[in-house]
Write a structure and sequence with these properties.
The protein has 273 residues and is of the alpha/beta class. It folds into 2 domains: 157 residues, 3-Layer(aba) Sandwich (Rossmann fold), CATH 3.40.50; 93 residues, ProC C-terminal domain-like fold (Orthogonal Bundle), CATH 1.10.3730.10. The protein is built from 12 helices and 8 strands. Strands 3-2-1-4-5-6-7-8 form an 8-stranded mixed β-sheet, with helices on both faces. Strand 7, helix 6 and strand 8 form a beta-alpha-beta unit. The structure holds NADPH dihydro-nicotinamide-adenine-dinucleotide phosphate (NDP) and (2S)-3,4-dihydro-2H-pyrrole-2-carboxylic acid. Catalyzes the reduction of 1-pyrroline-5-carboxylate (PCA) to L-proline. It is found in: Cytoplasm. Pfam families: F420_oxidored, P5CR_dimer.
Length: 273
């Protein structure tokens, strides 16, 4: 991939995941910078990955050819207003936003420029196992689209959406979704602990099973998810009892409602920020 000077404004959880994934994929550390108001996260990034760090966002803009906007959505407007008040020039830089709930039109207002790509990654990018949605308006050049796509492909898989609202559905299905699986695993581990396993053994049982199940899905692309489930579910057996319980309690409905709630919140943020 083209190796531009790439800066991350906001050095939190998601930036760390992306930076770690990029470095593992061979992106040169000397071409990456992160900025953040407090120093501790920056020092850790510099120590772990050897990247440039700064507490001055303006420096990121002066230095980089592409900038990832990685502050919390609620901080985006004030961060960008401060930058412009300092006299920072945003117009020569490719801006890649990872923020939930801020649409391109709003980002254009906040930055006064249009060279913006909106993305929605997730934290498994840390391990090169991310899933990122991307959206760009027609004005964005193929070169900029390719750069953002290759950057996210360095840390996992990518999917473009044609309509911007698709990003809100990617949030529900991928951006937020690692947390759903963690919640499920927490519940399973808690029950295993109640059944007498140590915390460590409960975690081993749950994590190895989750890993195995995910790998079964990946290794069998032509087998439906329902079929993989059926292969575990012996007639009159134990799994059937557990699955019947999930379904009687409306698991599918619960999941659909939870994902709809995430989309609704993303759309709500788009009207508020
Ligand atoms: N976490 C996730 O799974 C995902 C997050 N996202 C998006 O990524 C973005 C970041 O989320 P996440 O990493 O979780 O959040 P974090 O809170 O972990 O990171 C945000 C970082 O921004 C820093 N910050 C605050 N104000 C400024 C400023 N003015 N200039 C520069 N940096 C600043 C914070 O510094 P300090 O803590 O020192 O105040 C913090 O380190 C959000 O917009 C979110 O929607 C997208 C997909 C997945
Ligand atoms: O919870 C959030 O709002 C962010 C966006 C997707 C994951 N974390």
């Amino acid at each position: 991939m083209e190796e531009k000077k790439l800066a991350f404004i906001g050095a939190g959880n998601m930036s760390r995941s992306l930076i770690s994934g990029l470095i593992q994929a061979g992106y040169p550390a000397h071409l990456i910078m992160a900025t953040n108001p407090s120093i501790s996260k920056l020092e850790k990034l510099a120590a772990d990955f050897g990247i440039h760090i700064s507490q001055d966002n303006g420096q990121a803009l002066e230095w980089a050819q592409a900038v990832v906007l990685a502050v919390k959505p609620q901080m985006m407007a004030s961060m960008l207003a401060d930058l412009q008040a300092q006299g920072a020039k945003l117009d020569n830089t490719l801006l890649i936003s990872i923020a939930a709930g801020i649409n391109v039109a709003r980002l254009q207002e906040m930055t006064g420029q249009t060279r913006i790509i909106r993305t929605m990654p997730n934290t498994p990018s840390l391990l090169g196992l991310g899933m990122t949605g991307l959206y760009a308006r027609p004005n964005i050049s193929q070169g900029d689209r390719d750069y953002a796509e290759h950057m996210m492909q360095a840390v996992g898989k990518t999917l473009w959406v044609d309509e911007e609202d698709g990003i809100n559905h990617i949030i529900a299905a991928a951006g937020s979704a690692p947390a759903y699986f963690f919640l499920f695993m927490e519940a399973m581990a808690a029950h295993a602990i109640q059944s007498g396993f140590s915390e460590q053994d409960a975690r081993l049982l749950v994590q190895q099973t989750a890993l195995g199940a995910a790998n079964m899905v990946v290794a069998n692309p032509d087998t439906g998810l329902g079929e993989l489930r059926a292969q575990v579910t012996s007639k009159g057996g134990t799994t059937a009892q557990a699955i019947a319980h999930f379904q009687e309690q409306g698991l599918e409905h619960l999941v659909a409602n939870a994902m709809t709630a995430a989309v609704t919140r993303a759309r709500e943020l788009e009207t508020q920020l």
